[in-house]
Amino acid sequence: MGLWNWFSRTGPSGFGQNSTAEEVTEGIDASHLTAIVTGSTSGIGKETARVLALRGAKVIIPARSLESGIKVKESLLEQNPDAKLQVMEMDVSSLESVRSFAQSFNSSNKHLNILINNAGIMACPFQLSKDGIELQFATNHLGHFLLTNLLLEKIKATAKETGIQGRIVNVSSVAHRRSDSSWFDLNVINDESKYKPFNAYSRSKLANILHSNELSRCLKEKGSNVTANSLHPGVIMTNISRSLDLNIMSLATLVKPFLKSIPQGAATTCYVALSPQIKDVSGKYFADCNEASPSKEGEDEVLGKRLWEFCQQILKKSKAEK
């Protein structure tokens, strides 16, 4: 978070911590764009989908069940009958489900301009995913890592065909600052005896930033007209915090006047996804709709490469076991 935030309500971009998603996208025509927003059935993901659709974009709503996705689509259409929305089934914590979604999307949709990896869970009790991976790491990072890899050629091809720069947006968290690099081992991640819910959340959020940075480096190296950035949306009380213990929830109640609303929480995501101000900006971390600095681990290129290889090994093993 920039120092300007302590003295001003806005930063160099003209926006700040109190800006809403509608405000940061005002006047932007996104009618030529197609976007996927994971986690768009509730919270800031739903608000992100609503505002992108309000600006004219075709928005894909991945949902764990078609029934839940259709309910969200109907509620968004009530607010904006002209919204271009498509519901598709996907559980981001399941590698098989992610692969199925990507295959369906790649075969049925011509273009993809924007991928917003927003879905997440926070500080939940220890659980393993269907693939035997700690659930927060599986949901918040690994599923999105696989999804991005499977959709990457589609995004690059769209950018080449249309001349419009593609954007990949990873929703991280300031919580990434609580994590270090001592966990690049599946035996460590999956060790229930060492599991601390918020530490596991922080680990997955650091992974989001490292993923964006390494992806950005690879895209630049290959000359692709696609950017990759990460962001902290702000502290917002949404469904993601339902697993927090009572002490933290009580504290959250006390500081509630200082928390962001959902429209404010979706602002940085929509800014990074649509703003013309950040054309050609890649491998950066944003907060309050302005460029910010992550932790030193979040800027570590060697760490980013290690994480990439680590995730590739997990995915390779999971595919071999199918």
UniProtKB/TrEMBL annotation:
Residue runs in coiled coils: none
Gene3D superfamilies: NAD(P)-binding Rossmann-like Domain
Signal sequence extent: none
UniProt cross-references to Pfam families, sorted A to Z: adh_short (PF00106)
Cross-referenced InterPro entries: NAD(P)-bd_dom_sf, SDR_fam, TIC32
Domain of life: Eukaryota
Family: Belongs to the short-chain dehydrogenases/reductases (SDR) family.
Protein name: Short-chain dehydrogenase TIC 32, chloroplastic-like isoform X2
Biological source species: Dioscorea cayennensis subsp. rotundata
